[in-house]
Amino acid sequence: MSKKLLAVLILFFCLLSFAAMQLMPGFVQKAGVIPPATLPNGSVDTSDMEKPCSNENPQWRQAQVIDGVEIEASLACEPDNPYDVAASVKGTNNISMATLMQTRLAQDAVTMGEDIDKDGDPDVINIKLEIMELNGGSPDGEYLINTFDIAPGIQPALWVFAPKSQGMGVKSFTTFAANPLLRAPSPTIRVEQGDKVTITLENTHYLPHTIHLHGVDHPWQTSTGDDNDGMEEHSVFPGQNHVYEIQPRHIGTMLYHCHVQTARHMLMGLSGMFVIEENQPNNWVQTFNVGAGQVRHRSVATKKAFTQEYDLFYQSLDKKLTQIVQEYGDPRLVANKMTRDYNITESFENYFMLNGHSFPYTLRDSLVVVGDNENVKLRVANAQRSSVALHIHGHKATITAYDGVEQPAGLQITRDVFDIAPAQRIDLQLQSQNDGLHSYGPGLWMFHDHVLTATSSDGMEPGGNMAILAYKPLVDEQGMPKMHEASLMELFNKKFYSKQQSLWDTGEFSHLLGEAGIFEISMVRLALFGLVVGLLIGLLIFISVAYKQKNKS
Fold it and tell me: At a CB cut-off of 8 Å and minimum separation 6, what does 525 contact?
């Protein structure tokens, strides 16, 4: 056999092999874009499905008194730890050791001093904050540490200010999950008008940071002549501490955030709400509202005017930025990648969060639960890169303050969409009076950012910062909305947000709207596959025999 003929036969063999691979059938086959009639594709994989509510600490939902601190009831699936609330009100130096041990707070996380004006509450407040990384990479293995899921299976890296804590960064020795104090968003901080407040930043992180008290009345320098404005020129480097001093004269809803590489550090999560409450007698305010949400120990002034109070904190994340700290373990590489390689002008917002979570996890701790004829205060802050267009279904609320400045009655606006610029805050008065204006009546009313991308998580919808304004009869005993059971079971599934499962994969319409399914292999294709394989075997035998005969000759 000539070399030319052998080359032709080898080429023919290669072509037949390629054809065989293309025609190789399975027992079943996925449907194409326009599939023929399909068979059911089997039951939904439930291996990554979670309970909508873990119901881990149901006793925390009750109204209770701890060390003399009255803590309001919460209907949330994941209520605040009431011991954290008590410590935040009385100070870690004024509660029993039994109460302190039920928290993760350090003994000096928030300490209360003397009552200078003799009105029944402390006027000297000392706060200590650390900086923690969530969902960061570990040098010890291919896993993330101090994990905090913002939604099922979604773990972007985050940096947060956290109250100074004791013990490990994780819940226990058997998990990588962060302890409950280490979470997004950074805690809402509350102080009283006229209080002498010190905020100590203990930089436990590997990059420099500051605290800028955005909108908070504060002098430019401390009493010792040090920086008090938190600008980048006065960065607090790793392992260093810095004390900020304030005695705010003006009440309102403000912010605090890092002002080092501000565009990047805020987009990594280093921001929180800062509230100055009106000076009132016997006014023990809740210094930390961990995770924001419902305020379970309200100020005297708020109790007089409202039946409830909620903090609503909006944030967004760029997954390209957050992945940097998961991929590089060397602080020098992290700093270089963030400052030189990452271009903030080409950034995207992939994840949108309300109080540290994206839908459906927002249903666990960010429901606003009301009864009939209530008057609810909502403090709303926008720490996203983009504007928020907050829309509340079934209700029209009234803007009572912009950026911490109360508006006269004649300038207060009642509407159902609120434009909130980046770093802006508004106070809302939400009334559940069923009069067709303030409320359309009881229900499970969605509220969300009406910028359309914000209701998605990396493009998957429903997601983002959607939440629900729920009337009490429509919330079950675990704090979850009723009438949503079927859809919630699909959404509390990691496979959905990793784009491995259809939204409508169960239920009576799954055959129309779920996965396209499978269909039986075509007999014609099976016959062609057999023919091609037969030709391949015959050709292989022919080449082998011809090659042996040539060698003998």
Answer: 23, 25
Q: At what angle do helices 3-23 and 523-552 cross, to 10 degrees?
A: 160
Task: For residue 449, give the amino acid letter.
Answer: D
Q: Residue 214's CB: how many other CB atoms inside 10 A?
A: 19
Comparing C-alpha atoms, which of 177, 173, 171, 168 is closest to residue 144? 177
As a whole number of angstroms, the distance between CA 189 and CA 256 comes to 9
Give the chain's length. Answer: 553
Please list the pLDDT of the chain residue by residue as tens digits (553 residues): 566 766 766 777 777 777 777 767 665 555 555 555 555 555 555 677 889 999 999 999 999 999 999 999 999 999 999 999 999 999 999 999 999 999 999 999 999 999 999 999 999 999 999 999 999 998 888 899 999 999 999 999 999 999 999 999 999 989 999 999 999 999 999 999 999 999 999 999 999 999 999 999 999 999 999 999 999 999 999 999 999 999 999 999 999 999 999 999 999 999 999 999 999 999 999 999 999 999 999 999 999 999 999 999 999 999 999 999 999 989 999 999 999 999 999 999 999 999 999 999 999 999 999 999 999 999 999 999 999 999 999 999 999 999 999 999 999 999 999 999 999 999 999 999 999 999 999 999 999 999 999 999 999 999 999 999 999 999 999 999 998 766 777 889 898 898 888 777 777 777 777 776 655 566 777 777 778 778 878 777 877 777 677 766 6
Residue type, 1: M
Backbone region of residue 537 per phi and psi (left: phi > 0; alpha: psi in -120 to 50; beta: other values):
alpha
- 372 near 432, Cβ under 8 Å? yes
d(CA 178, CA 51) in angstroms, rounded, equals: 19
**CATH code given to domain 79-291:** 2.60.40.420
Alpha-carbon distances of 60 from 80, 110, 141, rounded to whole Å: 7, 22, 36
Please provide the DSSP assignment of 311-370 as one string. Answer: EEEEEEE-HHHHTHHHH--SHHHHHHIIIII--GGG----EEEETTB-TTTHHHH--EEE
| Structure letter (DSSP) for residue 341 | I
